[in-house]
Amino acid sequence: MAHYAEGEMLKTLTKPPITKTQLVMYSGASGDFNPIHTVEEFAVKAGLGGVIAHGMLTMAFVGQMLTDIVGENGTLVDFGVRFKGMVRPGDIITCGGQVTKVQDEPGGQRVFASVFAQTDKGDRVVTGDAEFTTYAI
Amino acid sequence: MTVEEFTAFVDKPSKPVKHEVEKGAIRKFAQAIGDQNPLYMSEELAKKSRYGGIIAPPTFARTFDYGVIEGLWFETEGLIHGDERFHYYRPIKAGDVLHCSRRLVDVFERSGSLGKMTFLVYEQTAADEAGNPVVKTKSTIIYRGA
To answer: What global pTM score does this model have?
Structure first.
């Protein structure tokens, strides 16, 4: 069973570059058809300089980083993020985090961590926190 | 809409919307986010897991329709998604029948570099047929309209 210590960095996840096709796929899969994510002319007119990714897509990447480290033996309990910047097609997102607190419990550990997502240009586009256990609940 | 007008809707629940969670919808969502986790796609492997079947990725709950709060309508163009939080009681599974509803839990105003902004905090609940919550979501939406 995984064992965590306060201050420990979580294993990062780097995703392939975001594509416009992926934004269309995410719109369809999520039901969020806001044209700022898919229609170039609309996004330009809205003053965004082009289409931007759904904040929830970046959050989904952070979710994947968490489920990858929590694994099948653990349980993700809670996870929240704040959206801080725009993500565009071509951006390469890396997600990571750091353990802020650990509680020993009968079945294993309850772990509290800070989480983030950043672009390859170094912009922290998402910051947040998560709580998970190393055992099944 | 003004803060006072929004505040009148605080705690008024939407009419719940019933969702049947389909494995195909989960697979399409996992493909869109590029997550190859077999628990989302492979019935064979998922069956052998402790979940006993296909589950959904953690942010999938945001794809549900949580219903309309009667009388609350405003222009949604230009809204900014401020933050989002999920609290899990158990994973969402393919085949789940979930009743999804939401309510506005807080409204407040702040002045920032973009001028006056109204913060709308919603809580969304997906509950099973017995009424037990499966996932609760809290979202802050920033409204800059008049």
So the answer is: 0.96
